[in-house]
Amino acid sequence: MQNGTQGTIRSRPVAPIERLAVDKSAGSVEPVSLTNEAASIDDNGKRKKEQQNLILEAPLKREETPHRSSNGDRQQPATSFRSWLFQRNREGVGNGEKLNTCPVTLDKSSVDIDTTEVFATKLDFANVDSTYWSANWERRWNERRLDVNNTSPLKVFVLPHSHNDPGWLKTFDMYFQQQTSHILNNSVNFLDNHRDFRFVWSEMSFFARWWQTLDRHPHLRQKVIELVYGGQLEILTGGWVMTDEAGVHLYSMFDQLIEGHQWIKHHLGDKALPRNGWSIDPFGHGNAVPYLLRRSGIHNTFIQRTHYAWKRWLADRQQLEFIWQTSFTRSDSRSNRSKLKDQIVCHMAPFDLYSIKHTCGPDTSVCLRYDFRRMLGEHSESRSEPVSAANIHQLAVDLIEQYSKLGSLYTHNIALVLLGDDFRYDRRQEWEQQYNNYRQLFNYINENPKIFSSAHIEFGSLADYWNAVHRRQKTFPTLSGDFMPYGDIYTEGQANYWTGYFTTRPFAKQLARELQHYLRTAEIIYSLGRHHLLGTGGHEQLRSRIDADYMLLNNARQQMGIFQHHDAVTGTSKAHVMRDYRQRLFQGIEDTQSVIAHVMQYIQSKAKPVYQPYSGQDTYNDRYHQQGQMPFTTYLQLSEKRTSLDALPVRIPLNLNAHFWNADSSDYPAKARRPAKVVVFNSHAFVVQEAIRIHVTDSVQKVLGPEGHELEFQLNPVWGYSAELPTGLYELLFIAKLAPLSTTTFEVIGQTLGERSATPATSIKVFMSDSWESNSPPVAKPTLSNGHVFNFETSNDEDITMINENVHVVFSRSTGLLKSINGRDVSMAFGAYRSADFHSGAYLFRPDLKEPRQNVTGRFPVIRLVRGPLMSEVIVVYPNTVMQRYRVYHKKSSVGAALTAGIELETSFDLSVRREYFEMYMTLQSDLSSGQEFFTDSGGFETLRRLRNDLLSVEANYYPMTEAVFIQDEGSRLTLLADHAHGVTSTKPGRLEIMLDRKLRFDDARGLSEGVSDNLHTRSRFWLLMETRKQDQQPSVNKSASNKRQVPLLSRTAHRLAIMLNFPPVVMQSRPNALPRDLHTEVSFLLEPADCDTYLLAMRTLPSEVNNGASYHLPSLDRTLLVLHNRAPDCSIRTSPDFRNCEMSMAGTAKRRRGLAFTNVTVLSIRKTSLTGTMDGEYILPEDIQVEPHELESFIVSFASSANKNNSSKNDRESIIDFETQTTGPLLSGYKQFKSAGVNTTLIGKREST
């Protein structure tokens, strides 16, 4: 144990420490729980619980109290963990009354197949031949083949398809021009002339691009619609792309599905909306996609790439088709209805790939004889010969054997055979070749039932297949979980794990999340700001300008959608294609930032800006950049911008000197100053307390909040990798409390010469150390002979401590890296794997087991310590490797704040400066007894339990983390939240390993044909939490159900921090030389916050209701799609102080339904709808906007405008919220309740405020 005034008390691996029992004579400290049950450790290291008397230490003196100096001022003193913990418990932080704050308990779904349990305990991972066919399958096939009483003869649907990647070896545009456009052109003519042929399509990004080329051919567009309605051309899934299912965040996954479905509804009509899913190429399958599909009206789906051991295990049991359920059910009265609502039937293909070689049956050599594409000069694996009278019988016999073996793997004896591959049918000849040869075989087999046992074969769509299946089979096994990771054997009969792409090209993954953030923000503020403008009437020219911005939103949606493709966000395309993707993302960011700037300036300006459109322009871009027009964003600009598509964002300095009336005078009187303005938009339906950072060019005198009161602030140095401090550039930090769905104005006033300020100066300390020092024995004097190279002289040699009311963090003096949190050992380190040549590439991960793990950080870090009244920060730089930042905030928590709950991390790295090739990771090694378990989120939707299999290699135990990963024991949980996707694992108890970046010399033989060496400077942001788990975690309603296990969930604090990490407030600042504007102090669009666990996932203005191609890029007059997500919390986690009021309200017996009550816009009607907004449901009242725990719900909200206030439909009038005309009724009654409760309201109708 190490002790000292600035040191740490390194705890033993004990249960969570909550109070102290002190033996004053010996000076020892023992942990005691709040229930007077202390955790001790016996000789075998096992935990025991024993009753102890609670002995409390005498109160601390004022000078010993954390956060205060001897004169009572806030600061960051050298405080021992013992003192901090006593003070924390004395003030009641983190304790408090135990409330049953779970409105409903989520239980683990009772299913036939739990993928976590089966993957860990039942699958056979033995290497097998790539064309495996077991003896059990052979026996079953023979029994069915010879059964004369078989009432289910073989039925086969041959499904022609073409898998079109929106970028991989070529860019999206290159693929479209060279291949995809030809495929779709050929499909129309061929299907029209061959009514018995079928074709399926899924990538709407390509389809929409092709549809534009038919602009001058309306008869062809009509023909396409007829083919779709007639079932010859089936649209599957209907997403903008076939999304990746490992590293895509829920918002992006969902948004590309909305974009595709809205496009179909608008251009092809409701009858064309997909009813079946199609996911044949993502590398492993998550459980968020089937949920989204089912809630969007899709009842069946098809998946392809799953671990070979899964295919073998399910085929053994004839369970390759199953009902894919969520991992949770609710123990309330509506759970049965919800359970049925979440069902979707899934078909898993039994063999490796979707190409003809792998789809007709188990024997690939036979299947290659039935690929009839033969092009002059084209290399092909095909061994086919044209069907003729001489060979038709043998071809039919061999083909039906393969088909019947395939059908025998399913109880219904119906085979689905895919006929296609990547970019197939791009030439007219192939359509003819495949059709003519197969047609002859089908006719021969169908016309000879005695020879072929009444087998029937036809061309079919996926809908044809599922219709036949549901006629023969009424029940299916149930399954919950996902199919990660994916392992193949088709190249060498040895397992290869596709777990490298979880991390490959992290810069692009983070860039996509940035666009996701700005797009969501732009959608929300555009919908609210535009309807605010429309509801007030007038401003027609301004309205025209804002309507034109809808094109920017459309473009950003589609660019972000393309990047969710399974070869884009995965980082598994060629380098020049990845650059094209980054260009698209960069353009989308610029477009969404423009929309945000336009609307925020309109909302916040008291005198609305005047916009005069140029009358003679033909295109939107020309109008937007027309010379001589007053730019719409002349006063406000974003505080952070990207200068190029390959650079990290930079903050734009706010020039305080420019905000003076007499800029050419050297003596600025105080009365001549005008404040710089900072406007912050909170896009969430809850109160936010967030750290706002901007760069300023001068010292700051004061920061004023929206009510004119002074805010506490802190000036920090602006540091990069270098320790140099720039002159005239500082980081201004203040904590902003933001109302839900609001824009708030803050004022920053610069300091003049001679002006005095009470704000304390930030303390800075810079020093170097030897990171290897911790491995050397303590010596009186460092010498070259005892392992030291340098003797670093500093003011002290003790560890660094940072504290607030919730966390006590210790950092190593020698490494600068994390050492402990709240008395629990949690050490951070960086390392790297050497890649196995030709087996570790963009897709695959396989470390070279002959090479030990590498130390990539070097030996001599530069450590910087910043301490201020609001935040303390440790910055550690390991040259040419990594810069690690740790931040602890000191601001007292309030409702909606989570800043003080953990440690904010920023990890910056750039492997492009390193000559070596390796795969770099970060580890967190704790003393938690987590065993084999760890938990990762699945697409930001569910949290799934993972079990490490020590019989498998490390790459087989890697899983995708989209948003969160944690480990836990009986008393504590260590949670890491991330701002983009990573591959993660737990290689031993108490350890988390997070892959950061991969630099790869060789290809992995999966088609890319190049390594990954285009690494870029990347910044990964995290939050790290050490949370306490309650011992009495089961609500009384659930104690009787001891046989049920609760679903793993994040805590409320973790949910809140994850949301803020991915969707922070948008900060804008005044331009230095712009004419001053009079701004509103605050404009809010919600009367009160939403329910505690309800989050605003999306709010998107729908396209115009006029059903023609031109109107799709115009916004609807009144309709907006509102999507809410209830992120159910884990009730076993002790509540953060941030949610005390939330918990108290939820513990009430008669909790009032809040719903969503908008203000500053007038709501005409609210209607339930499918998730993607394509199916109309019932009308509801605002207080009936409710979302069940862990579910998503969508609503169509119609807002009033000056044009439609008096023209609403009859149904709309039944639920109108027009306060100008309505004087009685439940809606106005609800409004009066808000008024009587003292809620600040502003309604467009009556212009009424309190």
Automatic annotation (TrEMBL):
One of its GO terms (molecular function) is mannosyl-oligosaccharide 1,3-1,6-alpha-mannosidase activity. Residues 59-71 have a biased composition (Basic and acidic residues). Pfam families: Alpha-mann_mid (PF09261), Glyco_hydro_38C (PF07748), Glyco_hydro_38N (PF01074). This is Alpha-mannosidase. SUPFAM superfamilies: Families 57/38 glycoside transferase middle domain, Galactose mutarotase-like, Glycoside hydrolase/deacetylase. One of its GO terms (biological process) is mannose metabolic process. Catalyzes the first committed step in the biosynthesis of complex N-glycans. It controls conversion of high mannose to complex N-glycans; the final hydrolytic step in the N-glycan maturation pathway. Belongs to the glycosyl hydrolase 38 family. It catalyses: N(4)-{beta-D-GlcNAc-(1->2)-alpha-D-Man-(1->3)-[alpha-D-Man-(1->3)-[alpha-D-Man-(1->6)]-alpha-D-Man-(1->6)]-beta-D-Man-(1->4)-beta-D-GlcNAc-(1->4)-beta-D-GlcNAc}-L-asparaginyl-[protein] + 2 H2O = 2 alpha-D-mannopyranose + an N(4)-{beta-D-GlcNAc-(1->2)-alpha-D-Man-(1->3)-[alpha-D-Man-(1->6)]-beta-D-Man-(1->4)-beta-D-GlcNAc-(1->4)-beta-D-GlcNAc}-L-asparaginyl-[protein]. Binds 1 zinc ion per subunit. The lineage of its organism: Eukaryota, Metazoa, Ecdysozoa, Arthropoda, Chelicerata. Residues 1-80 are annotated as: Disordered. Keywords: Glycosidase, Hydrolase, Metal-binding, Zinc. Its EC number is 3.2.1.-. Residues 496-585 form the Glycoside hydrolase family 38 central domain. Transmembrane segments: none annotated. Homodimer; disulfide-linked. Its cofactor is Zn(2+). One of its GO terms (cellular component) is Golgi membrane.
